[in-house]
Amino acid sequence: MKGILLERRKIKVYGKQGKILPKGIQEEHTAFLHNLLSNDIKGMKESSLSYNLWLRQNGTPIEDFFVYKLSDHYILDTEGDVKNILEEFNKLKLSMRVYFEDLTERLSHAFIFGEGAGKFVEEFFGMSFEDGQVRELNGLIVAKNNMRLREEGYDILGSREKLEEILNRVGRITPQEFEDIRIEKLIPRIRKELREGFSPLEAGLLSYAISLTKGCYVGQEAIARVYYRGRTPRTLAKFEVKNVKEGDKIREDNKDIGLITSVNSKGDKALGYILRAKAQIGKTLPCGAGEVKLLEVVS
Q1: Per-residue pLDDT, 24
Q2: Cβ density class 107-121: b for 16+ within 10 Å, e for less
Q3: pLDDT tens-place string over residues 155-186
Q4: CB 269 within 8 A of CB 239
Q5: In 3-state terms, what secondary structure has residue 126?
Q6: Cβ contact 30:160 at 8 Å
Q7: pLDDT by residue (tens digit) across 118-145?
Q8: Domains of the chain: which residue ranges?
Q9: In terms of domain of life, where is this protein from (predicted)?
Q10: 38, 64, 66, 84: most buried, per Cβ within 10 A?
C-alpha cells in the first residue's frame, strides 16, 4: 500500500433549479457540465464520481476532470490552472445561473492505493466503499477511485493536517515515483498524452471517459466521426527505451511513425503514440538519438 499528497486543484460547481432545461435535468449547474464535458453528468448518481474530458471542437482535450457529485453540487478535480479554467467557464455559462468556487486552499488531496488500501480505509473510516462511491466523513471527502491508476485506490480530500496524519500510516511516495507508476501502467496524462493533435480515442479512453449516447457536447461530433470510422490509425503504447527523450519521433524507413510523450525517471520506459499498422510487439525501432522497443498498446 502506498500513498501520496497530490498537487491538484479543486473547483466547486453549483447553481439554481432551472425551468427550461433538457429533459431529465433539474439544475442549471448539471446542465452546464453535461453540455460541456465528455461523460454523462446527468446520469451520475448522488455520491458518485466519473472521469471526464473538456474537449475542443476538433475533439482534442483541453483539460481532464474527476467529477465528484455531492448532494447539491459538484467538485471538479484537475491539475489545470484554476484561474484560466474559471475564466473560460464564466464565459461559457452565458446567462445560466451557475457558480464556481476555487476550493484548492481548503481541500488538499491524498491518494492511497495498492494492496491493502481497501482494508486500511475500512479500518480507518469504519466502512467499505463500492467502486466510484463518494462519502463525506469526519470533515473529509472520500472516494473509491480505481480509474486514477487502474487499481484499487482512494481519493481523500480535506485539510492538509488531517491528510498528513493519514499518510504517515502508509508507505509515502514522491511525485516522481507516482509518475513512474503512471507510465508503467500505460495511463495517459493531460498535456502529455492527452494533447492537441491526438484523439482521446487513440489513448484508449472510450470505455470510461466518453459517452457516445448522452447527446451533444463540445467535441462530440469529432469524437463520433473518429469512432464510427473504426479503429484509429494510431494507438497509445508503452516502450522500452534507450537514449530517448520526450518529443523524439519514432522512425521506420526514413518516415515518422510515432512520437514519445512521457519518459520515466530511469530513462528506460516511455509512453507515446505509434501507427497501428506498425505496432508490432517486441519490435525495435530508431527514435531520436536512441531506440525504442514496443512492449504494449492500449487497444
Answers
A1: 61
A2: bbbbbbbbeebbebb
A3: 999 999 999 999 999 999 999 999 999 999 99
A4: yes
A5: coil
A6: no
A7: 999 999 999 999 999 999 998 999 999 9
A8: 1-167+199-232
A9: Bacteria
A10: 38
Rounded to two decimals, what is the model's pTM?
0.94
Q: 91: buried, middle or exposed (CB in 10 Å: 19+, 13-18, 0-12)?
A: exposed
Cell of 157: 480530500
Secondary structure letter of residue 75 according to DSSP:
E
Q: Which three cell numbers stand for residue 174?
A: 514522491
Sheet holding 48-55, edge to edge: 48-55, 61-69, 74-78, 9-15, 98-102
Residue with cell 463518494: 134
Domain 1-167+199-232 listed as CATH 2.30.110.10 = no
Question: What does the alpha-carbon distance between residue 167 and residue 259 come to, in Å, rounded to a whole number?
Answer: 37
Burial 17-43 (b: 16+ CB within 10 A, else e): ebeebeeebebbbbbbbbbbbbbbbbe
276 φ/ψ angles, rounded to the nearest 5 degrees: -60, -35
Q: Tell me, what amino acid is at 69? A: K
Q: Residues for the chain: how many in total? A: 299
- Label residue 16 by pLDDT band (50, 70, 90): confident
